Amino acid sequence: MAILSPEVTDQRTSPANATNRICEASFLGLFSYSYGLRLQERAVELLRLGESPEQLLLLEHPHVFTLGRGADVANILADEEQLQINSVEVHETGRGGDVTYHGPGQLVGYPIINLKPDRCDVHRYVRDIEEVLIRTIAEFGVLGTRIEGLTGVWVGNEKIAAIGVRIAHWITSHGFALNVNTDLSYFKMIVPCGITDKGVTSLSQLLGRQVPLRDVAQIASSQFARVFNREMPFSDLPSMPSLQA
Length: 245
Prior knowledge:
The chain is built from five helices and 13 strands. It has helices at residues 33-48, 80-85, 122-138, 203-207, 213-228; strands at residues 11-12, 21-30, 54-60, 64-67, 89-92, 99-102, 106-112, 153-155, 158-168, 171-179, 199-200, 230-231, 233-236. The strands form two sheets. Strands 1, 2, 3, 7, 8, 9, 10, 11, 12 and 13 form a ten-stranded mixed beta sheet that branches. The protein has a three-stranded mixed beta sheet with strand order 5-4-6, with no helix packed on it. The longest helix has 17 residues, at 122-138. It is globular and about 50 Å long.
């Protein structure tokens, strides 16, 4: 199953290599969180059945707080009235981690890949996603680091990217959220990832300018191809009908 349309230019972001798997990267634009979940579920099913190549779904969501497995709902500090005033939805989800925020201007990435046969290591997978994001922001002159004992990518003491994954039968879903032009004030309504002594930041805050989200998506796709040894067509698609049931 291919999701590229004839009008879309196929841009290879990894050198052609017969041993590299195909992973189709798509920049989809703004979709609701629930729609993003349905896209992931369909992509996982098609990959499991061998009816689709791997996918890297790149998109942004309207304002939403998501709760991972075992998250503490008390880490949502806003009451129901504040959530309504600020048009924030709340979703429980099957990923790991605590509470996090998604919203416009944030690049969300959902890798739907099979870690078999040679990458069946959850910790390695998370570290590899961090590496993709560290390399992505380095393209903008920003030095990202890891903090021992914590997940995600940090600039100093502030988190710029969160990671929460789900792996079933070694097929991945959920993924990462990179703050690009994110309105950071929404993080004040939660305890991000349940961490009380760290801040949050974004590319636009660090650079003092807005950054085109599509540019970041394409760089993230290129770095994903290198870290995971994939061959990645990159496309702009307003929707993904081929992934709909």
